[in-house]
Amino acid sequence: MDAVVIWAVLPPTLRILVRPVAAKEYWMAGRVRRYLATHEFNAVLIDRGVHDFHHNPVDVLAEAMGTRYSLIFFPEGQRGTDPEPREFRSGLYHLARRRPDVELIPVYLSNLERVMPRGSHLPVPLQSEVIFGPPLSCSTSEGKNEFLIRAREAVCTLRPR
User: Do 81 and 34 belong to one domain?
Assistant: First the structure.
C-alpha cells in the first residue's frame, strides 16, 4: 500500500516514469495483484528468497531504472509499525554509489499504519499525508554507515510533530 500511495499522489505525467519496487512473492500471488503489478504499476519485482552471486537486487534496481525511470522503494526492507523508519539496509548505499547521477528523494508517509493496518484488506477512512523532502546524494568520501544514518534522518525529519 505504501508504494501505491506515493505513486498515486504523483502527477499522471510522472506516474508513467515511476516504478514501485515490491516483493515478487506478494505481487505474483494472485491474478489481481499480478495484473496491477505488471500492467498498472510497471513494478520492479524483487525475489527476496533468492540470495546468490548471480542475483543481486541492486543490479536489478539499476537495470530497471535505466536512463528513464525512477523507483519507489523502502530501504528498511520491510514494513514496520513504528512512526519512524527502521534502520536502513545497505542496498540504498550501493545503489547510490552505483548511480551517483540519480537524486534520492526522502518521503515520509504519515498515518498510513492506521489507514491500512497490517493484514487488513480495506483501508480505514482516515487522513494521511505524503511528505517529500529535498534530494540527497552520496558523496564519494562518505562511508556506508554514515550515509545510511544521514538518509534515515532525512526521512525522520519530515515526520510531523
Answer: no
Query: Percent helix, strand, coil in the chain (nearest 5)?
Result: 35, 15, 50
DSSP 9: H
CA nearest to 74, candidates 55, 61, 59, 65 = 61
Q: pLDDT digits over 113-150, tens only?
A: 666 666 766 665 667 788 999 999 998 889 999 999 99
In a shared domain, residues 7 and 40 = yes
Average of per-residue pLDDT across 22-32: 90
Q: In what order do the strands lie in the sheet with 44-46?
A: 44-46, 18-23, 70-72
Question: Are 21 and 84 part of one and the same domain?
Answer: no
Do 58 and 83 share a domain, yes or no? no
User: What is the spatial distance between Cα 100 and Cα 131, in angstroms, rounded to a whole number?
Assistant: 23
Do 92 and 66 lie in one domain? The reply is: no
pTM: predicted TM-score of the whole model, two decimal places? 0.84
CA distance 146 to 150: 6
